[in-house]
Amino acid sequence: MAQIHPNLTITKSGISLIKANLHQAPLFISTLEATKQEVEEEIALGVKVPIPKDMAGGYTHERHKKNFFILQKAGNLFQITGDKKYAEYIKEVFMAYADMFPTLPLHPTNRSYATGKIFWQCLNDANWLVYCSQAYDCIYDYLTKEERHHLESNLFRPFADFISLENPRFFNRVHNHSTWANAAVGMIGLAMHDEELIERALFGIQDDGIDPTMVDDDGGYIKVEGQKKAGFFAQLDYSFSPDGHFTEGPYYLRYAMSPFLLFSKCLHNSRPELNIYNYRDGILEKAIYSMLNETDANGLFFPINDAQKGMSWLSREVVGAIDIGYHDFGLDPMLLSIAEKQGKVLLDENGFVVARDLAKGMATPFAHKSIAYNDGADGKMGGIGILRANGDEGDEICLLMKYAAHGMGHGHFDRLGYSLYDETGEVIQDYGSARWVNIDQKGGGRYLPENQTYAKQTIAHNTVTANEISQYQGSVKKGDANASTQYFFDASNDDLQVVSAKDDKAYPGVEMHRTMLLLKDDNFRKPLLIDIFKLTSEQENQYDLPVWFLGHLLSASFEYEKEATSLTTLGSDHGYQHIWREATGHSDKESTQITWFGKRKFFTLTSATDPEDELIFVKTGANDPDFNLRYDPALIHRKKEAKDALYVSAIESHGRYNPVSEISSDPFSGLEKIEVLHDSVDYTVVKLTGKSQKTWTIGVANVDNDIVSNHKVKLGEKMMSWTGPIMISKTMNQ
Amino acid sequence: MAQIHPNLTITKSGISLIKANLHQAPLFISTLEATKQEVEEEIALGVKVPIPKDMAGGYTHERHKKNFFILQKAGNLFQITGDKKYAEYIKEVFMAYADMFPTLPLHPTNRSYATGKIFWQCLNDANWLVYCSQAYDCIYDYLTKEERHHLESNLFRPFADFISLENPRFFNRVHNHSTWANAAVGMIGLAMHDEELIERALFGIQDDGIDPTMVDDDGGYIKVEGQKKAGFFAQLDYSFSPDGHFTEGPYYLRYAMSPFLLFSKCLHNSRPELNIYNYRDGILEKAIYSMLNETDANGLFFPINDAQKGMSWLSREVVGAIDIGYHDFGLDPMLLSIAEKQGKVLLDENGFVVARDLAKGMATPFAHKSIAYNDGADGKMGGIGILRANGDEGDEICLLMKYAAHGMGHGHFDRLGYSLYDETGEVIQDYGSARWVNIDQKGGGRYLPENQTYAKQTIAHNTVTANEISQYQGSVKKGDANASTQYFFDASNDDLQVVSAKDDKAYPGVEMHRTMLLLKDDNFRKPLLIDIFKLTSEQENQYDLPVWFLGHLLSASFEYEKEATSLTTLGSDHGYQHIWREATGHSDKESTQITWFGKRKFFTLTSATDPEDELIFVKTGANDPDFNLRYDPALIHRKKEAKDALYVSAIESHGRYNPVSEISSDPFSGLEKIEVLHDSVDYTVVKLTGKSQKTWTIGVANVDNDIVSNHKVKLGEKMMSWTGPIMISKTMNQ
Fold first, then answer.
1. Mind listing the pLDDT tens digit for each residue in B380-398?
2. Among A423, A594, B494, B624, which one is least packed by beta carbons within 10 Å?
């Protein structure tokens, strides 16, 4: 193998292409100019390599973090512009690190399961090496052999050994942390032509001797039972489902994508014989698209598991995924429209081609799809179902239902939960994580205690909590070992899309079966979400199904007593201790409604109710000594002393309000009521009645999900028959 | 006077101008086309004049409301296009009203102090006549003499008599309701050439025999003591301060502007000898500009008194004010930029000229000014002070301080209160009104009980409540009779703008003096609000000063105990019954800080504190049986058993957070502390200390507000001297 440099993320031929055609790519030019200015400001400040001491947010942390980003950029600038000042700066900074590193002890904070040297955790050290490898590759030929030897023997090789051999619990996991570690070791190995490091990166450390009970800072297990492999190939094997879903969710996938794609890109350039892009049937490309599909209409990631809301495909990490995804995976013009929104590109051949093709007007809008993803490396750990349908104004209603695996240390106990979105964002929310990332005042930006005690608990999600105890009794180990099961998914009919899943492990002795439908119908301005949640048990249980609606309650069709002068908590554990009980209601009617106002829109929840049910209005914020929680409302539908139970409801977006004209349009629901016509082991049949007595009858075959099976249910005098797991029948103007 | 038609809001010469130059005014053309479509859709539906029965929001109400808007538009379309279908439609609708009106009883709802016939309140009937007069004027010459006689004797004249002679309590007030009534009677009088109606409109009914204790639906008095005049001139005399401020506030001024401007426009066209635009030294022009200046950076009206937030200069009513304001009051190019945002114009000469000049590129941005407005017809009832200063990114901080009269039935007990805005809207909020205008689910869109029990009360505002009792003990009568006094206002120095006011009537025996400053300084990225609130009393009082910050609390520099498992109300009356006490803290330090996060920005309140002070975190929402209130947070700074007291604080906007990059910039305050150096009857001197020991010392002369007076205060060894009521002295890098 010839020792050509650069050959990691950028290549000689790529540089030639860029230089010859720069004028074709205005977005590349503007990114280039902005990067020059940024890097030159840093060069003007001089070399700053302080002795590490601070946590994230503190000076030394932020300084070293800035260093590696700037070095990588300076490397690309050197290659593109040929200006040696960039190379010289990189050399000087590396020399300062090489002076410091040999005698550097562990970072003094000692607060991580894998404490780093430059940073408080090895993860950030690995970030450093991923970016610095690229800078080193860019100036490899600029340095003398002696300089290279000095840097490699005093800095890069010992650095790589530190984050691997000296920290196997960090290096040898299947986890996004370890992906960074593998990529870091592999990329510096490629830059140094160090086959041992490359081998270690790809296949892991053979005998790591890790204690199987050890957990990381987030409570995730280091070792997964029965999993023997480690290294980058193992990450590719185990991190994704066969269709590219990432079990920790898209917020974390965004973060993990960088090392996956950067190292793969390097291998693609330097080790084409590995054919890495086709590995596992093209898993990297699938991962890129699963990440993009697991977003709302504006590209904000669904906040599955521990995720901070507001993160989107505009983030720095996704710029790389879009540019490499476009260049190396088929020039999909939909990716160009995302690149345009990002407003910047990678300073390499990928980014250049994106900018050039954007300038050619080749972009088409990204079309979000209704799609189901499996979870688990074998695709057998449940999954998620995403249903999307357009409203009457080109707007969108999007359902995310989750019946996936636990998501490891970042997982939430939210089996059969869902969240609902419209074209502006959340309608029925997932709490996300109790964390204010990089906001120092909130616990230094780390996960807050309430993340464990509230955000992860079942009651914080739009699914049933039985007996005021979280699913799997809140055990990550049990959660990791089990998943729900997809029962049925069909998005082929735009007018009636269905996702249905079952779970009998989250609550031993309780079978849960939830079917959610997105109904498009001329009688409703927006797609209607219909939710049929069936519980079966031989024991009596209390079931709580919350709807965490985002907005202000306008009206309820039932009587309730609101607490006037004192509030108390809804319970004492499993998240209930964080919830204030605001009002308690009951309904005599078989169907009840609440209407709320949010985002200048009107929404209505219509639910089938029994007179014994409690309808409890709550808000979060109790037992929250540091004001860490948001104060969010929900309606909890409680069924007490129930063995079997059936929740049936619909959520409708039906009107708008304009505060300038002060005009409400369609402030009332188009539904009159919801009834249960039949509920047995085999079948559930419900009826929705709208204005003018129009009706929609929906049947679910609860046991047989074969799409060719025929079903019959007797409803009074009438026999209802259909084929396949779901039936809908409409009656207009009776 | 020749009987020329049309000659109310549009004129023959205006129509000629429009027809000859239509192509020059694209915005006029687009408004014209949209209006044609709207009116033709209504014509296609046929004449709909139902027997009145519904409240606002109900069918007959909305139908009749739509009728008068469409008729006015149809009239203009007839004049501009010459198409007789519009005139014929107007005639048919009028004939249907003329058939119905003679036998129409009072509206069956009977829920207003002045029940109408077509609508539930006379106010809406007056709206009907204001718009229908214009339509009648447009088709006057199209009708036969017999038809005119029929309409005038069966519909218009009895209609005008009904809302005036038969409802003097509605017609003969000085109030926005009566302005509509006066305009309605005057405009139909002009259209019919009925001098008696015109006279009645201009000068009122001479002997109205109204009971002086009578109140309207909002609790406002019908008669103001000592006020003898009525009619349109009286409205012009008493509704505004000499500089154009409207005592009910800009939200209501927006609504009242329509009859003021429409009737004035008619008089300007038909009775030029009245010289109405110069009446009271040009009060109408001043009113237009006070309305536009009493908005935030985006043109949203300050929610003074009963006002629904979100209403802005984009509203329908302001379209008229901008177009007439531009055409008739000096062609101010700043108004064109607002017209451009409104995206539509009046279908008359005013709107045409606006659209034409916009197309010529003559618009300039509307420059909001720092300005003080007096209140009261004589300008002696206090006022409001508005200070605005730009930040480092062209952004804005804007303070509104209120020391005005009560605002009649819509007034709040908020003397010496303030609200704070930035370029995106509210930072420190005024609650506004407890009302959801036209949202049926919330009490039919009317004022809710909580408007009286909470929104109007002093504790709902950013000013001091003494002894848990609202100002003036919550008496509208006492509030109406008194105002605070401006002590000093100076916005001439962009780096230090000041507003200062006093009040000794709101709490008998308590003298309140508040001085608020907007400081622009290179040491702060945004202008800093400094608040010096001095209270003097011979009795011991409890003082509560809330800061209704909009956002989520991030940190507090003092210890507090947050209620973990139960919440109770802060008090039992005067709004306190609606407030949950969430946490109570104390500080040993002479200065404390809280930092909150809102609108993706960081804000810090720094306050001088005594160890005996209570620092109480609260939220609204108690005693709110129907979920009518928002759940908003505040910090209440409580001083107990205090005679004299001094509150000194500063509010700083100092940083941002980007949820996509997850980067916080400047999350910490630039202030270290605030100290009181001196506080006596004559002088108050406070010191703010920033980072690196930079200091700002501010002196207030409490008694002598003469700008040429010299002042001296001894501070330890140092003598501080200055001229005028306010002094600031900076010390950098001591």
1. 999 999 999 999 888 999 9
2. B494
Quick one: which of B347, B271, B338, B342 has its CA closest to B36? Answer: B347
**Which residue stretches of B84-165 are H helix?**
84-100, 122-139, 145-151, 157-163
Start-to-end CA distance of chain A, whole Å, equals 79
Pair (B357, B410) in one structural domain = no
pLDDT digits (tens, 9 = 90+) for B5-62: 999 999 999 999 999 999 999 999 999 999 999 999 999 999 999 999 998 878 999 9
Question: Do A561 and A707 reside in the same domain of the chain?
Answer: yes
DSSP class of residue A527?
A: P
- Report d(CA B5, CA B193) in Å as an integer: 11
Here the CATH number for the domain that contains residue B726 is 2.70.98.70
Domain residues for the domain of A323 are 239-368
Q: Is A423 contained in some domain? A: yes
CA-to-CA distance for B296 and A190, rounded, in angstroms? 58
DSSP state of A676: E
Rounded distance between C-alpha atoms, residue B713 and residue B726, angstroms: 13
The first and second tokens of residue B515, run together, are 């001085």
Residue A573: closest CA among chain B residues belongs to which residue?
B565
Distance between CA atoms of residues A409 and A708, nearest Å: 40
In B26-83, where do the E strands start and end?
A: none
Picking from B310, B442, B552, the nearest residue to A660 by CB comes out as B310
Q: Nearest C-alpha of chain B: how many angstroms from A568?
A: 4
> Do B552 and B587 meet the contact criterion of CB atoms below 8 Å apart?
no
Q: Model ipTM?
A: 0.93
Q: Does A424 touch chain B (CB under 8 A)?
A: no
Predicted model pTM: 0.94
Any CB–CB contact under 8 A between A595 and chain B?
A: yes
Q: Which amino acid is residue B80, in one-letter code? A: I
Q: Among B708, B706, B686, which residue's Cα sits nearest to residue B697?
A: B686
Per-residue pLDDT of B444-490, as tens digits, reads: 888 999 999 999 999 999 999 999 999 999 999 999 999 999 999 99
- Whether B439 and A316 lie within 8 Å, measured CB to CB: no
Q: Could you tell me if B119 and B52 are in contact, meaning their C-beta atoms sit under 8 angstroms apart? A: yes
Which chain B residues touch A567 with a CB distance below 8 Å?
566-567, 580
Whether residue B396 lies inside any domain: the answer is yes
Q: Reduced to 3 states, what is the DSSP secondary structure of residue A567? A: strand
Q: For residue B555, which residues of chain A lie inside 8 Å, CB to CB?
A: 441-442
Classify burial at A438, counting beta carbons within 10 Å of its beta carbon; exposed 0-12, middle 13-18, buried 19 or more: buried
Q: Are B414 and B461 in contact (CB under 8 A)?
A: yes
Which residues of chain B make contact with A312, given a CB cutoff of 8 A? 660
Q: What is the CATH number of the domain that holds B350?
A: 1.50.10.100
pLDDT, tens digit, 9 for 90 and up, residues B484-538: 999 999 999 999 999 999 999 999 999 999 999 999 999 999 999 999 999 999 9
In a domain, B224, yes or no: no
- pLDDT (tens digit, 9 = 90+) per residue, A642-671? 999 999 999 999 999 999 999 999 999 999
- Which amino acid, B126? A
B527 Ramachandran zone, left/alpha/beta (phi>0; psi -120 to 50): beta
User: Does one domain contain both B347 and B376?
Assistant: no
Catalytic annotation present for A252: yes
Alpha helices in A193-315 (DSSP H): 195-203, 232-238, 250-270, 279-293
**A349 and A380 assigned to the same domain:** no
In this structure, the answer to whether residues A175 and A270 fall within a common structural domain is no
Side chain identity, residue A498: V
Q: Are residues A385 and A412 in the same domain?
A: yes
Asked whether residue B218 is assigned to any structural domain, the reply reads no
- B 573-592 near A (Cβ less than 8 A): 577, 580, 583
Of B155, B189, B205, the last residue of a domain is B205
- Helix, strand, coil distribution of chain B in percent, nearest 5: 35, 25, 35
Q: Where are the alpha helices (DSSP H) in B445-578?
A: 449-450, 476-481
